[in-house]
Every structure is written in structure tokens, then in C-alpha cells.
Amino acid sequence: MIKRIGLLTSGGDCQALNATMRGVVKALSNAVEDLEVYGFDDGYKGLIYGKYHMLTAKDFSGILTRGGTILGTSRQPFKLMRVPDEKGLDKVEAMKQTYYKLCLDCLVILGGNGTQKTANLLREEGLNIIHLPKTIDNDIYGTDMTFGFQSAVNIATNAIDCIHTTATSHGRVFIVEIMGHKVGSLTLHAGIAGGADIILIPEIPYDIKKVCAAIEKRNKAGKRFTILAVAEGAISKEDAELPKKKYKEKLEARAKKYPSVSYEIADQINQVIGSEVRVTVPGHIQRGGEPCPYDRVLSTRIGAGAAEAILDEDYGIMIGVINGKIKRVPLAECAGKLKMVSPKDQIVKAAKQIGISFGD
Ligand code: F6P
Asked: Which parts of the sequence bind Mg(2+) (predicted)?
């Protein structure tokens, strides 16, 4: 029996994309005699414009620890998928044609939320789709964990650890800005793991007066420094109440003055307390380098889970992990939904119990 599968990685890269594809292909080649694997270049672009190449088992050897993606990736916004390209090409039709031309049994798509929405669209268009949840944000609904997240937590935690020594030596206030525009999971986990004193995330809007009060409380207690873990998408209470359009305008105005929210917060703290505040932004370093052992194991399990679903010809699903078990989650149920931190989550409560301020 010949199995023909397509693989593509889309959206922001992260650690363990290669490890996951390796898991899928290794598990399939051990179960199927004739396996044909087509890798699409640079995410959905490759599927739209018919840019692909055949891969062999050799291509998946030695990539367990390699970061990035051997296929390349790109961001192709979901909202533009139904909009023809500059030459008038119907992207959805083009993707379907590539799929049918190659007589694929299924397409395995690795990506985050936006990628998943397009994967679901292709499912609705009749293609056999399996989505594998990647992102350092861990914000995909229907899975407890995404691959990439734990590796990024390690890096962001390490950044806070490194800042700790300098903050202690100089007696300064430091902000470490952590990735996550809409969801603060990465900031929350790295903040706790790195011993941050204040954690600001999009789901819990902050009051700058409370943030300053938390710093002053530490000063009064004789602590020489304060570390804030701030998510890219941290938002003040005041801004959270603005209508979407007004907030967008405010962000545009802020961008002219500050590179990001952390610099605005640093300025505000400086004005209220007079403390010297430094900002560190690890940025894309958080998505780079090799996957941590946790992610290598998760990816291997997710990859093997995908192979099993392909053998069962069970499509239109995401391979997630729920309560420690690999689960097939219908795309129709999870696509288009974000998994956010709830201010009521146990982890937030625990952080508050040990004295971490969320500025709320
Ligand atoms: O979704 C992953 C992510 O790294 C976010 O945490 C971050 O906000 C965004 O991507 C950055 O995107 P880009 O790589 O396009 O700048």
C-alpha cells in the first residue's frame, strides 16, 4: 500500500518542528512499506505555488535536535486566504490543485492558531488534514501543551536568571519582555520559574500605580532590586477598557515614542519612583536553538500520534495532548479559538500566594 503524505510548517518557527516531522515520518515508515513524503517550501506558499520536493527517510535523520524547520516557513494570514494574490490567483483553489495533483492521502500541517484556521478551511474544502500544534505561546485551544513552549520557557527563564545577577549587583529595576501578544502563558511560566517579582500579562490588565507600589514595597523591605516579566501584549486597565479601534490608535501613537510596552512601563516607573529602569528583550532568541528534552518527547509522541491517525485514515483533526494523553481533537471544535490564561487559574493563584504582583 502506498501512502502519500504532504508536510508543511507555517507561521512563526519554533523549536521541535523538525523533531515532530521526524516523529511522523519515522513512525509511518515503520508501518507502511511504500511511503512518499512531499515537503512544501515555506508553509502555505509552497502549497499555493506548487513549490515542493520529495523527501526520503534520510532527510529526517539527525534532525531531532535541530531548531527551525527544514522546510522553511512563512506567515500567510488566514484573512487573506480567500483574497486572490497580486496576479489574481485563487489561493484556496491553487492549494487544492497541488494536493490533488500529487494524489496525497493527507496533508500534515504544523503551525499555530492562524495556520490551524487555514488547515480547517482546507478540511472544509474536502482535503484530508492533520494539524500538529506548534507555538512557543501555548495558546492553542484543545491541547494542554504545544511543542516549542517548554523550550521557550527555558530560554526566557534563563534570560531572567541572567538579569537577576546584574539586577542584584546594581540594585536596579529590570524589565524582561517576553513574547506573547495575546496570551501570557510564556511570561507567566518563565516569570515564575525565573523568580520575577512582578508579572504583567495581557489577560490581567495592570494598574501602573499598583506596579509602582509593588516596587516600593520591595524597596522598603530592603530588597535592592525588582524584576518585572512583561508580556509583549501586556495592557493597562485603562487601555483594556478602550474600544478596539481607539486602542489600536493608541498603540500606533505609542510606537512613535517607545519600541514596545516595556519601554513605556519603564518610563512610567521612572517618573513615579525615580528608579533607574532597564529593559531587556530576548525577542526571537526565545524561538531559537534546539528543542528541550520535554519538547523532543512531546514531538515524538505527537508525531507518532499523527502517524497512527493517518494509518486509521482519521482526518480533520489536531493531535493534541489532554491530561497527559495524546488525543485526536476535531478541527471543527478547536479551530479559531484561543487558549488564554484565566486570572482564576491555580497557577496565577500560586504566584500571588508567594507574593508575585500582577499589578491588578
Ligand atoms: O506566535 C509566536 C510568536 O513568537 C509570538 O510570541 C510573537 O508575538 C510573534 O510570534 C512574533 O512574530 P514574528 O516572528 O512574525 O515577529
From this structure: 113
Strand order in the sheet with 173-178: 198-200, 226-231, 173-178, 277-280
Q: Which domains does the chain have, with CATH numbers?
A: 3-148+291-334 (3.40.50.450), 151-287 (3.40.50.460)
Task: In whole angstroms, give the CA distance from residue 137 to residue 190.
Answer: 12
Per the CB < 8 A criterion, the answer to whether 134 and 9 are in contact is: yes
For ligand 1, atom 5, which residue shows the shortest CA distance?
A: 180
Q: Which residues pair with 175 in a beta bridge?
A: 228, 279
Q: CA–CA distance from 125 to each of 19, 55, 96, 119 (Å)?
A: 29, 26, 8, 10
Probe target for ligand 1 pocket from 136, 151, 260, with the most ligand atoms within 8 Å of CB: 136
283 marked as binding residue: no
* 11 annotated as ligand-binding: no
217-252 pLDDT tens trace: 999 999 999 999 999 999 999 999 999 999 999 999
CB atoms within 10 A of CB 233: 18
- Is the CB of residue 148 less than 8 Å from the CB of residue 135? yes
Q: Are strands 173-178 and 129-133 parallel, antiparallel or unpaired?
A: unpaired
Q: C-alpha grid cell for residue 220? A: 522598603
Amino acid at 122: L
| Predicted structure pTM score | 0.97
Catalytic-role residue among 137, 139, 197, 295: 137
315's CB contacts (< 8 A; 6+ apart) are 106, 123, 128, 129, 130, 309
Reply yes or no on whether 137 is catalytic.
yes
Kindly give, in sequence order, each residue whose CB lies less than 8 Å from that of residue 36, ignoring residues fewer than 6 positions away.
Answer: 2, 3, 4, 5, 54
pLDDT in tens, 266-281: 999 999 999 889 999 9
Contacts of 245 (CB under 8 A, 6+ apart): none
